[in-house]
Amino acid sequence: MNVSASPPNANSSPTPVTGKDPLPTALLALTVVTGLVDAVSVLGLGRVFTANMTGNIVFLGFAVAGAPELSIVRALVSLGAFLVGAVLGGRLVTTMADSNRRKWVTTATSLEGVLLLAAALVGIGYNHHLTLPTSSLYAGIVLTAIAMGIRNATVRRLGVPDLTTTVLTLTLTGIAADSSLAGGNTPRLGRRIGAVVALFSGAVIGTGLLSYGLTIPLLVSGVCVLAVAFYLRVSLTNA
Asked: Cα(16)–Cα(152) distance, rounded to whole angstroms?
């Protein structure tokens, strides 16, 4: 579930993408994982976003205004943990991105996967209907938000067009604004549609898996991210 997107940062360094570049495939897979995490966080962790901070800020506003089933504390914890993850991801960028591209990307992706697996562990015995025990609730929020903060910092630096992995507003805008109806030439249409389908599919899968508890969708998410890390390790060059 996505509410809005922020424009690409002018200071980011876009990564050239060719037909043989493994990044688009990897980022589409990570977009599916975002749908899983969104399902877990919104439906299982007390109505917060841990991947999409635009939606989380909106939920925070709703909570401040007294909307039922929303929590100021949970939203703030998610926001704070996400920012911690973004700092960690940014640190990886500044210390590794220019010297060893493959090591940087695989390290950041592996760290995300490990954090999601840790969230799966703390989800054992957690009742997502009652959001109890509270310790598991907040541990799940913190771990998934840190993981997604690292992801967003990494993807921001990669700068692959139309594949932010967590938000779709600009992607959907591009589909319409660059279409033949608008006088455009529909660039990267397949990739854009793929991103929409990937996030949608992840949300559907995550919702279904959540019926078995919090651990299963987070376990699947972590394993998928680690598989992406392995794929990138064997596919990327150090250039």
From this structure: 18
For 127, phi and psi rounded to 5 degrees? Answer: -100, 105
CB distance 80 to 92 below 8 Å: no
| Residue at 93: amino acid letter | V
pTM, entire model: 0.90
Residue pLDDT, tens place only, 165-224: 999 999 999 999 999 999 999 999 999 999 999 999 999 999 999 999 999 999 999 999
Angstrom distance (rounded) from CA 236 to CA 64: 45
- Evaluate whether 92 touches 150 at the Cβ level (below 8 Å): yes
